[in-house]
Design brief:
The chain is of the alpha+beta class. It contains nine helices and eight strands. The protein is elongated. It starts with a helix and ends in a 10-residue tail after the last helix.
């Protein structure tokens, strides 16, 4: 039995090995792949997408109102009281005669048919409103898609920035340790003071917590990106990408015009205003008479037995005209309510247009600021690198102090940090401008 159990365990491990290997396989993620994953797996975006299905069923529900309705009903009379009719006697001096008449049956089956002929436009307005709601819902989903894409880009670039900070911290620590080694060599031959040695040791030690914080920031950025993509937080990933400058010339007028015709929020308000107009038609149509054809077929008997010929049937076809006379002024209240809603939507649209214009202007200003920072910091990094080289050379020759070397190294780290931050601000500024314009990633969600 022991050998049998060992054999079963070995076979189970062999069969499970491909799945174990697959779960531990490292995923290579580019920006495009990250966006695709988010659009396929992000639960908040998927939740928004389900709203389109709900809106589609509402359209089908509105269409169903144009079709006839047919209802079946079966009844069993549990208790009843028959009518009693008293008739005078035809024989003088005799008391009147009483007769019991039963107009009901114990068992009854009925079919009721109703066909709308004229509803004053209410059914058509209801269908138009449902279609407009579907279109508005699709714009809501498009807005959620753009926000998801922007959040993914921001998280992806944030990871690249955190990685740059780790590189800068490692380089700063490496320069400090290299300088410490140089100072120690000079100290051993009597060319450097004890103070310089201690200061160099402190400088290198102070940079280690900075590197630890940078690595922790990188781990947090990776976890945030995985969460946004709907991945398991333990999934190993290899993120491929660089913070690169991509030349882009913003045009305020053109970008703003694009935003005013493409922003899903503005398009949603347009659809909502059209929906309110259809609601106004429906409220007014409530005062218009309606016309319908109704029919009923009944089949009844006092005994529930289909073998005997004791079932009777009858039918009726009716033309039904319904004229609203007085309903407590509810129609006028609904009309006023809908008109107020239309005014509210008009004011909301004006306010939203101002917000959209402001967002476009802010995105362009932030983009220009980041662009200018990149151009200035790029040159600054080159000069800081040269300053470190000269300071280290001069210190070895006794022409510079230990403080000069430390200051040059700190300036280099700060310059590279500022340059990386400027690149991050620029690429996220581009993404922000695309979102403000209502455009963005238009590739397929699935490869």
């Amino acid at each position: 039995m022991k050998k049998v159990r060992e054999t079963v365990v070995i076979l189970a491990l062999i069969l499970a090995w491909p799945w174990i290997s697959y779960s531990q396989e490292k995923m290579t993620l580019t920006l495009d792949e990250c966006i695709r994953l988010a659009l396929r797996q992000n639960p908040f975006y998927l939740s928004e997408k389900t709203k389109e299905e709900d809106a589609g069923y509402r359209v089908k529900e509105a269409i169903s109102n144009f079709f006839p309705t047919l209802n079946a009903q079966g009844t069993n009379v549990l208790d009843k009281k028959v009518f009693t009719v008293e008739l005078p006697s035809f024989i003088p001096g005799q008391p009147p005669q009483r007769y019991k008449i039963d107009f009901t049956r114990n068992y009854q089956f009925s079919l009721a048919l109703s066909v709308p002929l004229f509803t004053g436009g209410r059914l058509i307005s209801g269908l138009k409103q449902a279609n407009l709601n579907l279109a508005a819902t699709q714009e809501t989903i498009r807005q959620s898609r753009q926000e998801t894409v922007f959040n993914v880009k921001k998280a992806f670039y944030g990871y690249l920035l955190a990685k740059k900070f780790v590189d800068v911290s490692e380089e700063a620590l490496g320069l400090a340790e290299k300088h410490l080694k140089n100072v120690k060599n000079l100290y051993d031959v009597g060319m450097a003071s004890k103070f310089d040695l201690l200061r160099s040791q402190v400088q290198a030690a102070n940079l280690k917590p900075q590197l630890i914080r940078a690595k922790n920031g990188l781990s947090l950025a990776e976890l945030g990106l995985k969460n946004l993509l709907g991945l398991d937080l333990n999934q190993a990933v290899d993120i491929k990408g660089e913070l690169n400058y991509q030349a882009f010339e913003a045009n305020l007028d053109a970008n703003m015009a694009q935003a005013l015709v493409s922003r899903p929020e503005l398009i949603q308000l347009n659809y909502q205003k059209q929906m309110a107009a259809e609601m106004l038609k429906m409220a007014r149509a409530a005062s218009i008479p309606t016309l319908a054809v109704g029919g009923a077929y009944n089949y009844w008997s006092n005994e529930f037995n289909f073998k005997r010929n004791n079932w009777e049937s009858y039918y009726a076809v009716n033309l039904v005209l319904s004229i609203p006379v007085f309903n407590g002024f509810s129609n006028s209240a609904k009309v006023g309510e809908t008109k107020a809603m239309i005014k509210q939507l008009e004011y909301s649209r004006k306010g939203l247009m101002a917000v959209v214009k402001l967002e476009v202007q802010q995105a362009i200003l932030n983009l220009q600021q980041a662009k200018e920072s990149i151009l200035s910091q790029e040159k600054n990094v080159e000069e800081a690198q040269e300053a470190v080289r000269i300071a280290e050379l001069n210190y070895s020759e006794g022409l510079a102090t230990n403080l000069d070397v430390s200051a040059a190294q700190v300036a280099l780290s700060q310059a590279k940090t500022n340059y990386s931050q400027a690149l991050y601000d620029y690429v996220t500024g581009l993404a922000q401008l695309e979102k403000a314009m209502g455009v963005g990633w238009d590739k397929d969600e699935v490869k």
